[in-house]
Amino acid sequence: MSRPCRVSIASTFRAPSSVYVSxxxxxxxxxxxxxxxKEATMDAFYExxxxxxxxxxxxxxKSRAAVCxxxxxxxxxxxxxxxxxxxxxxxxxKRNREWLIAAGRQIMCGMLRHDKKDTKxxxxxxxxxxxxxxxxxxxxxxREELGTRKITHLGIWDIVIDFILLDxxxxxxxxxxxxxxxxxxxxxxxxxxxxxxxxILWAMISAKRKRLVYPDGFMSKxxxxxxxxxxxxxxxxxxxxxxxxxxxxxxxxxxxxxFVKQIFSYNYNSMNADELAEKxxxxxxxxxxxxxxxxxx
Length: 297
Known about the structure:
It is a single chain. Helices cover 64% and strands 0% of the residues. It is an all-alpha fold and 297 residues long.
């Protein structure tokens, strides 16, 4: 059942969630992260990541070395190897996972509410996606769907951060020509721009839906979510929204990019997987708190 979004999101994030909860038993694979668990507490953690990176064993869809503040591809790959395991350890604990799911739901609802958009349809689709991901039966379907998009691991970095968030920021930087044409028209009122944008996105996504192997799989649900979130966010980033909402969207982007840079900036040589997981969770919680306060203004 879908959960309603409240006017204030403060009550969603209670104090216990500010403390990292480490798994009480060896981490188990989930559809949020299907990583092997034997290496979770190994020593010489970063050295192993460097070894894997140097050997070409760290696969990734797109290099994010620049945005992550890494000096080269080897550093990016080595730290990514470590972060995948850290995220897996975080998500393996049910309490951490539930907190993160609630945080995502409430933050995106807050973004919609600030643009005076109804959140019911978003919550419905968001919860359907979470339910789909939590069902182990769907793991191979997701692996197949995302594999065609060169996503090699089912985890927080690869799906949520890289594929969803960072790709969205890339699209904002290089929008399709049809969208550029809409926002270049100074005489077109906002309502008409929003309608035109929704029509363009609907046409683009409809074409992609026709190529889906699984019409009710993860990507289909993700496309539906995109049709809800993309129009108001695109309007803001391309200058077709109110000043206050545009500032909020840029604030959101700044916090996400800041989080990414920070988790790649740690002294990896001095941490094992447990310590890195705790550090990442602390940074994640801090980022959520900052966004929460901004959305509650």
